[in-house]
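=== RUN LOG ===
request id: a7f3
mode: sequence -> structure
chains: 1
length: 160
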Amino acid sequence: MRTYFLQNREEINEVIRACKTCYLAMSINDQPYVLPMNFALEDDVVILHSAQEGKMWETILKNPQVSINWTLGEDLAWQDVQVGCSYRVKSKSVVVEGKVELVEDFDEKYRCLQLVMAQYSNREFKFNEPAVRNVGVIKVHIENISGKLFGAKAITPWNS
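=== RESULT ===
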């Protein structure tokens, strides 16, 4: 079984939008830190939200370069049931590298929160003023993006 790069951005976006959770990786003083997050995707920006305090917030204030991962699929596949190294997890994965921007403007924070909720529901949501003021909204501007398909059968003329 092979690993293939996802070739176009729409296919990559489909993987992202099919996921419910992304994993935000940060680092400070060579100490890595990863958190599961809810998100929204808008063009070349990933939108996240959190409290405006704590380890994550302190880390991104000191080092705004981050990476984000989405993984879709967990089915096992193998070429030979008796050979351990022939096993793979059939999945698709996307990795983004980017830089954090903190959103301070009230109207933009509100809009971003609506986008995050739209990732999870078709309902329209409203947010009260204290909720918007007290939440941290983060935009990650995508600098690099790549996607892979894992555990696929090799494509040959006789099985394509």
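=== NOTES ===
The radius of gyration is 18 Å.
Confidence is low (pLDDT under 50) at residues 155-160.
=== END ===
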